[in-house]
């Protein structure tokens, strides 16, 4: 059996100019990054301005488990399958982060015969977007520290620095550090810390910006510190947003690649959904909507994180109206939620399935709260029995969700034709009445509680004294009417990763709240979630290698 990377390396890729030509993109609008990658010009957006949008399909999932769900694989396979049934579909996904690639997940470009390619490039340095975001963020940090070193005209309080440095790698040793040691010329000594690049506000800004001017203005609104009188200091006060924009001007342009079956795909932006808003860029999604009759996109982790933020943050700012939600699950994952050990998931167990399927039920009901029709896609495994599949189908249909089996991992687009046909039927027969979950005029605690009760099914929210103080500061700055972006474990509907299925009798604990004024949301930190992950005991990097001819192996 071939590995994902072996399948990808045997792909019959078309030159990226051919893929662009198939979308009626002119040569003058293509900026080549080798034979199989390209960025698209700003002029293309202007040319497509008056073209009507296609249908918007969001792919999301139940809470992730060690059994695997395959959300990105389904996204890619569905796009390929649309082509198989004669539909013009364009894929819009996030860029992988080097952190998970070398950490626990390995590659992050789909799987089996439903992948985006060139797989190695996409998973590694790609077109340099991640590096540009890292550089822009750290330039701002350097200018902040330099300002304090060179006289501190803004009277910045070094005890109230809000900005963190970033690195696109899992490195727990950088969570808490001290900088400026060594002497007077080496800077002002102070405590500092790193986040992973995908958790940074700069990443969120790139993904939520409408254009270059909007990005520059948003970068200027980044809250970097407070002065000695308690007044806010923003990036524009340091004069940093112009240079940051110069570093990010090319990164703002969406990246065009293709699937194994030559379906066009935009891979652009990569915020994590457990610690950021978890969606690819608004610009890439808008471009896909203009160029395809169907735009297929995804949001990270389960729908309690990625889809909620897609609807309440991305759609709100991007004025997007999704037509259908594809909710991915596996029989294996549902049995795992029902208490079955990973080693025993291949055995039929209807009792465990009936216990674990409540997790799927919550996700279906949550998506319906947004007024969008739902198709449940079961990512089929060979060990799934007919009785188990029939049970899941009947359960979904009782809840008003359409249902389809998908075998795209093994069969590519051919294995997703039934799903593609079902999605098209759902869009044609069930009109979307999309609406956001909450009004941003609610207070910050009310918005948090709304999500906690409606989406997580919590009994309420515990706000610590530190979080309450932070909320008061944000309100004093006049930013209380922003949407909230809740950082929470992906493994549970609650803030406790050990509580599977449908947890009951719990409250969400908010330990801190921070302002991302440039991105346009308020970050709410719950439980023990960290913005700089660490590597596992046996990281994926141990399996990755490169031979003397430059061939990469072990990348999933």
Concise synopsis of the structure shown:
The protein has 556 residues and is α/β, with parallel strands linked by helices. It has 19 helices and 25 strands. The strands form 6 sheets. Strands 1, 2, 3, 4, 5, 6, 14, 15, 16, 17, 18 and 19 form a 12-stranded mixed sheet that branches. Strands 20-22-23-21 form a 4-stranded mixed sheet. A 3-stranded antiparallel sheet has the order 7-12-13, covered by helices on one side.
What does this structure look like?
This protein is α/β, with parallel strands linked by helices. It has 19 helices and 25 strands. Strands 1, 2, 3, 4, 5, 6, 14, 15, 16, 17, 18 and 19 form a 12-stranded mixed sheet that branches. It has a 4-stranded mixed sheet with strand order 20-22-23-21. It has a 3-stranded antiparallel sheet with strand order 7-12-13, with helices on one face. A hairpin with a 4-residue loop joins strand 22 and strand 23. Helix 7 runs antiparallel to helix 10, helix 13 (331-337) crosses helix 14 and helix 14 runs parallel beside helix 15 (386-398). The model has no long low-confidence stretch (mean pLDDT 96).
């Amino acid at each position: 059996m071939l590995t994902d990377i072996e399948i990808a390396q045997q792909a019959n890729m078309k030159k990226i100019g051919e893929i662009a030509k198939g979308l009626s993109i002119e040569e003058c609008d293509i900026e080549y990054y080798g034979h199989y990658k390209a960025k698209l010009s700003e002029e293309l957006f202007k040319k497509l301005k008056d073209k009507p949008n296609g249908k918007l399909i969001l792919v999301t999932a139940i809470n992730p488990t060690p059994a695997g769900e395959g959300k990105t694989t389904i996204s890619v396979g569905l796009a390929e399958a649309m082509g198989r049934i004669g539909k013009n579909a364009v894929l819009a996904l996030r860029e992988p982060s080097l952190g998970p690639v070398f950490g626990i997940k390995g590659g992050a470009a789909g799987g089996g015969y439903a992948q985006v390619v060139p797989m190695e490039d996409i998973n590694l340095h790609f077109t340099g977007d991640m590096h540009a975001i890292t550089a822009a963020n750290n330039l701002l940090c350097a200018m902040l520290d330099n300002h304090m070193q060179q006289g501190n005209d803004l009277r910045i309080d070094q005890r109230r620095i809000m900005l963190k440095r970033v690195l696109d790698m899992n490195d727990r040793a950088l969570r808490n550090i001290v900088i400026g040691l060594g002497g007077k010329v080496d800077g002002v000594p102070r405590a500092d810390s790193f986040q992973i690049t995908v958790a940074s506000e700069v990443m969120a800004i790139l993904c939520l910006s409408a254009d270059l001017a909007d990005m520059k203005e948003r970068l200027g609104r980044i809250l970097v510190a407070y002065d000695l009188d308690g007044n806010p200091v923003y990036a524009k006060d340091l004069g940093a947003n112009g240079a940051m924009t110069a570093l990010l001007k090319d990164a703002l342009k969406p990246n065009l690649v293709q699937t194994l079956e030559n379906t066009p795909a935009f891979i652009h932006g990569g915020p994590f959904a457990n610690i950021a808003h978890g969606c690819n860029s608004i610009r890439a999604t808008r471009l896909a909507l203009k160029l395809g009759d169907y735009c297929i996109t995804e949001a990270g982790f389960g729908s309690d994180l990625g889809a909620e933020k897609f609807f309440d943050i991305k759609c709100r700012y991007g004025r997007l109206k999704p037509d259908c939600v594809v909710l991915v699950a596996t029989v294996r994952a549902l049995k795992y939620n029902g208490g079955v050990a990973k080693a025993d998931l291949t055995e039929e167990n209807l009792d465990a399935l009936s216990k674990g399927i409540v997790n799927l039920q919550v996700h279906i009901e949550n998506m319906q709260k947004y007024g969008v029709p739902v198709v449940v896609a079961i990512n089929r495994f060979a060990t799934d029995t007919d009785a188990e599949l029939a049970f899941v189908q009947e359960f979904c249909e009782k809840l008003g969700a359409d249902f389809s089996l998908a075998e795209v991992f093994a069969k590519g687009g051919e294995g997703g034709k039934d799903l593609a046909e079902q999605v098209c039927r759902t869009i044609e027969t069930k009109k979307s009445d999309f609406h956001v979950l909450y009004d941003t005029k609610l207070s910050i605690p009310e918005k948090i509680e709304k999500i906690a009760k409606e989406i997580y099914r919590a009994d309420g929210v515990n706000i610590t004294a530190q979080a309450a103080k932070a909320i008061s500061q944000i309100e004093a700055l006049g930013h209380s009417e922003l949407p909230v972006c809740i950082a929470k474990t992906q493994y549970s509907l609650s803030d406790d990763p050990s509580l599977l299925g449908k947890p009951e009798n719990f409250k969400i604990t908010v330990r801190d709240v921070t302002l991302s004024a440039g991105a346009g949301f308020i970050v709410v930190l719950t439980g023990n979630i960290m913005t700089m992950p660490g590597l596992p005991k046996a990281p994926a990097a141990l399996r990755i290698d490169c031979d003397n001819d430059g061939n990469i192996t072990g990348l999933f």
